[in-house]
Amino acid sequence: MFGPWIVTLLCGLLGATLVQANLGPPAVLNLGPEIIEKYLTQALKNHDATAILHELPLLSAMQEGSGGIPILDGLMRSILRYIIWMRVTSANILQLVVQPSTYDQELVVRIPLDMVAGLNTPLIKTLVQFQMNTEIQALIRVEKSKSGPARLNLSDCSSSENTLRLSLLNKLSFMVNSLANNVMNLLVPALPQMVKNHLCPVIQQAFDDMYSDFLKLATAPVGLSPGALTFDLLSLAIQDSNIMLNLKAKLLDSQARVTNWFNSSVTSLMETTPDGAPFSLLLRQDLVNGVVNTLVPKEELVILLRFVIPEIARQLQEDIKEINAEAANKLGPTQMVKIATYSGPQIVLNEDGATAAQSIILEVFPTNTDVRPFFSLGIETNYEAQFYMEGDWFMLNFNNISIDRIKLMISDIKLFNPDILKSTLTKILNYTLLPNENGKVRTGVPLSLVRALGYEKSVLSVNKGALKLTPVSF
């Protein structure tokens, strides 16, 4: 094993590979209007909202809508005595529309209703039918809480007379048509209040279910090998027509103990502005690094070079011969290389792609029985990092490792410029370190969010300081 002083010296000589910023929320689940409309529509179906419309008490609502004015009461009684039966015969909730509000942190939800009502009258045997179209408007707001994070709230659910349209579907006798028109006139002030009293509570329940579903999706744990990544709600925001769930995260080991916390910070460099996608999940760079370091922990590799890559072993011997011929002759069949990493690959995310940097210590021993190396090198490596999705799996692959800097730490053969070994060491790392780390990330990380939101495929893109997951259909 390497002594602590070597690690300290390496860090001092190579410096920090990355200067990582704390980039606002560690993760952001951005839900666009398409998702909000789909989930709220399904929640309304689950609560059988159309059944509520079928049960609207049309006759009693008109009776209560007289306002107690005697003239109107008399007129109403003379009209209503000709009605034997009256009810909604068909009802549909049309396509919901979610729009930005003129106020900050607020969305407008428009819910169009299409109903047909029928009435029986002794004046005619035929059912008298008329169509009723109206629109419910509700507001989604971010409301702060003194006891915890803010939450979404549905408020101001109402239907206005201005959105109400009534039309007679069948033209009958003058007397019946006049009766129907008077009924519709009585419904104009009564129907909005009726819808508010009977349907808005169901819309509230449906919204609460939708919000609960969003929280479950956002905070669902992600299994790692080993351990897990878990999320909690940090804050909420509304931007344009989108709901943004800002999340904090923590990494757990195989015993469910917290190994790393990721919280908010003052400065944000992660772009979270909605881009028109149905949804997006953004993962901050330091959170990505935390996951990668869990999958690829620090370790020490021991390679018997001549058994694994004999051609490169001979090339290394030739390189050492240029430094010290006597030392090169001591390299036996069991010549050994030790590679130690003291952290996982550190990911850097930029618009032009992702790279990984890693500082290692590499030591060369003449045989596997020697306890003292010929030399120890501090090496700063750099390689490509490719993030992609395979079905529900978050995948990572490393390619094309290169050496940025080499520093001679200790040498028992003589002082020398380690750059003369750069080509050979690069090949050793490509043949040993790179496959070892790719083997650890090959299984990927399960991510069920995409399918849970109703999409089959997704794609990962690299932004400055963040990874972004969006559905392929976008």
Automatic annotation (TrEMBL):
Residues 36-271 form the Lipid-binding serum glycoprotein N-terminal domain. Keywords: Signal. The keyword Ribosomal protein does not apply. SUPFAM superfamilies: Bactericidal permeability-increasing protein, BPI. InterPro entries: Bactericidal_perm-incr_a/b_dom, Bpifb1, Lipid-bd_serum_glycop_C, Lipid-bd_serum_glycop_N. The keyword Membrane does not apply. Pfam families: LBP_BPI_CETP, LBP_BPI_CETP_C. The gene is Bpifb1. This is BPI fold-containing family B member 1. The lineage of its organism: Eukaryota, Metazoa, Chordata, Craniata, Vertebrata. It comes from Microtus ochrogaster (Prairie vole). SMART domains: BPI1. Residues 1-21 form the signal peptide.
